[in-house]
Amino acid sequence: MGDTSLFATEHARGRAAYRLYACTILAGICLILYYRATHIPATWREGRGEWIGLSLAELWHAFYWVITQSARWKLVYRRTFKDKLSQRYEGRLPNVDIFVCTADPYAEPPNLVVSTVLSLMAYNYPPEKLSVYLSDDGGSILTFYAMWEASQFAKHWIPFCKRYKLEPRAPAAYFSSSDSSSDLSHHEECLSMKILYEEMTSRVDAIVKSGKVPEELKANHKGFSQWKSEMTSKKHPPIVQILIDGKDLNALDNVGNALPTFVYMAREKNPKYHHNFKAGAMNSLLRVSSVISNGPMILNVDCDMYSNNSDSIRDALCFFLDEEKGCDIAFVQYPQNYNNMTKNDTYGNSLSVMNEVDLCGFDSWGGPPYIGTGCFHRRESLCGIKHTKDYKEDWNRGSERNPPDDIRKLEEKAESLATCTYELNTLWGHEVGLKYGIAVEDVMTGLMIQCRGWKSIYYNPPQKGFLGVGPTTLAQTILQHKRWGEGNLQIFLSKYCTFIYGHGKIKLALQMAYCINTLWAANSVPTLYYVIVPSLSLLRGISLFPKMTSPWFIPFSYVMVGKQTYSLIEALLTREITVHGWWNLQRMWLIKRLTSYLYATLATLLKNLGVSKMGFIISAKISGEDASKRYEQEIMEFDASSLTLAIIEFVALLNLACLVCATSRAVMMGWAIVLDMYFLQILLCGLVVAINVAIYEGLLLRKDKGSIPWSVTLTTLGFVMLVSLVSRV
């Protein structure tokens, strides 16, 4: 009897060489820490305070480096066998419910959401077993209108995709891709389809721009009558509208094939009740879908994250339905990829190293975290069920429902599950569904699931499963990472810290791997110290590193060069990052630690002290025309707040001033003497200057609207001069 497994696990090659390298770096780190402990200056005037501070910063970075090794020590890759899945299960595939969340028709344009929804409805999967749910937290009639348009266009788009086996199946992505200029694009049907799509998007854009739906259009669907004049995005009743009922024998596309179910939901909003952001929307979708389709498997994606691989469901099922290894798998996480990254990734948002390395390391110790999008869930694991040896999944769930005589009764029943008061005095948001009270509700929820005995799988297929829209400006990038950093640090400082909550439930290596992310923000203060104090010490003539002629110079230089060299090699091996892109990544690594993660640290501490409350800001998915052009030209957009720009500029200008001062001292005293005394400090200062060339360009050379305002520059320059003078007193 042959191998019946539906997936295979392969271990990465070359890990022995990496472990040898890591051991040498660890030896170097230990020598550095020993040097710091045994060579403390005798007096404060000789730099005792700076030395101790630098020692603590290096101790922290050493600890964090050890933590990161958990995701690099052992890597695994997954491979699926969809042909075996089809042979064994084609006639009894489970129902799949797909959740898409949106909240604002202006920050997240409805046409963007339409394209995502259509790509999900067109999966290579039996349509009668597929249900797509859109949660509109803004409760906007504009979004509902766009979804109604999508439900009509789906009758043409879905059979068209399946007939020609198109990839990707998001119309916006397909018609803008190189494939649209292939032989198929000259086919009369393809040209007609493109015209039909453009006409639809033009209608949607016109409605969104006008801000209202004309009365004559409202007659097209009963759902429009649910909107009243007094409703707002922050106060409205629950609305559930089944735009396509896949169980209805009359719900057919234009060639007579069944259509997937498509449901619009706007849960109730009321200022008197906390709505718990995206986690609250997901939990409402869990309940609403349970009375309409109740699929045992759930996929959730962000509204800008379209399907790029029509077989993603089948790939995920290879893990869930494997008889030997699938019974304890709670979720299958796909990587988060973007389709709008420039060649050299100006803002370091591609996540390539995380996708190709870190998450594979997580997978070797019990599974990746849940990252909020592109994730297939077992419904019962999301609903708080613990895994036991006796657990058995009912994959036929939801397949027996007959279409009701009155769809409105079903909609009303679903609406009763999406009210503000439904969750009061229940376990929803605590033990059932997504966890509340944490900015990164996805990571927290995934951790809780794993601690209930479940495992997760990371799957990164050659053809990316999902593609979305990444940040295209500095402000968007800083905002996104501030939110991620704050939420992750909240986990570490709470009772859900993996070393406490995960103790005895998940492997120690997985506990450590989670801390790579939960301690992102905590790196801010040591990094800030490291890029300011050694440079200021140059002004005062204080040496904080060993001389070039000292044997202690070797471990410092080896660790510095070794870590950066490996970082470059690791980035290049992803085949998605160029050398220039890696350099940009280093700049953004520094900027995010100085701004996003510093803000996240302060916000988390204030929240824990009860001074502030958690908030959530939707990341805009669009930029202005001028900003978009600069992004395409890989020119940084300095559109962040004045405080953010001041911090970035302060570090850049301070290090430039200190480098100039060190150079002038070398000219007067002799290069040999100065380099021997201060080489590593000058090197560190020079690297900060080199990495900030784009900042100096935005400061001095550029005149466009994306440059740094002179008001910020003059203020920062004055502060740099003041700090420099005070430090020399």
From TrEMBL:
<feature type="binding site">
    <location>
        <position position="108"/>
    </location>
    <ligand>
        <name>UDP-alpha-D-glucose</name>
    </ligand>
</feature>
<feature type="transmembrane region" description="Helical">
    <location>
        <begin position="708"/>
        <end position="726"/>
    </location>
</feature>
<protein>
    <submittedName>
        <fullName>Cellulose synthase family protein</fullName>
    </submittedName>
</protein>
<keyword id="KW-0333">Golgi apparatus</keyword>
<keyword id="KW-0961">Cell wall biogenesis/degradation</keyword>
<feature type="transmembrane region" description="Helical">
    <location>
        <begin position="16"/>
        <end position="35"/>
    </location>
</feature>
<dbReference type="GO" id="GO:0071555">
    <property type="term" value="P:cell wall organization"/>
</dbReference>
<feature type="active site">
    <location>
        <position position="137"/>
    </location>
</feature>
<feature type="active site">
    <location>
        <position position="442"/>
    </location>
</feature>
<feature type="transmembrane region" description="Helical">
    <location>
        <begin position="640"/>
        <end position="662"/>
    </location>
</feature>
<feature type="binding site">
    <location>
        <position position="302"/>
    </location>
    <ligand>
        <name>Mn(2+)</name>
    </ligand>
</feature>
<keyword id="KW-0328">Glycosyltransferase</keyword>
<feature type="transmembrane region" description="Helical">
    <location>
        <begin position="674"/>
        <end position="696"/>
    </location>
</feature>
<comment type="similarity">
    <text>Belongs to the glycosyltransferase 2 family. Plant cellulose synthase-like E subfamily.</text>
</comment>
<dbReference type="Pfam" id="PF03552">
    <property type="entry name" value="Cellulose_synt"/>
</dbReference>
<keyword id="KW-1133">Transmembrane helix</keyword>
<keyword id="KW-0472">Membrane</keyword>
<dbReference type="InterPro" id="IPR029044">
    <property type="entry name" value="Nucleotide-diphossugar_trans"/>
</dbReference>
<comment type="function">
    <text>Thought to be a Golgi-localized beta-glycan synthase that polymerize the backbones of noncellulosic polysaccharides (hemicelluloses) of plant cell wall.</text>
</comment>
<dbReference type="GO" id="GO:0016760">
    <property type="term" value="F:cellulose synthase (UDP-forming) activity"/>
</dbReference>
<keyword id="KW-0808">Transferase</keyword>
<keyword id="KW-0812">Transmembrane</keyword>
<dbReference type="GO" id="GO:0030244">
    <property type="term" value="P:cellulose biosynthetic process"/>
</dbReference>
<dbReference type="InterPro" id="IPR005150">
    <property type="entry name" value="Cellulose_synth"/>
</dbReference>
<feature type="binding site">
    <location>
        <position position="137"/>
    </location>
    <ligand>
        <name>UDP-alpha-D-glucose</name>
    </ligand>
</feature>
<dbReference type="GO" id="GO:0000139">
    <property type="term" value="C:Golgi membrane"/>
</dbReference>
<dbReference type="GO" id="GO:0071669">
    <property type="term" value="P:plant-type cell wall organization or biogenesis"/>
</dbReference>
<feature type="binding site">
    <location>
        <position position="278"/>
    </location>
    <ligand>
        <name>Mn(2+)</name>
    </ligand>
</feature>
<feature type="transmembrane region" description="Helical">
    <location>
        <begin position="594"/>
        <end position="620"/>
    </location>
</feature>
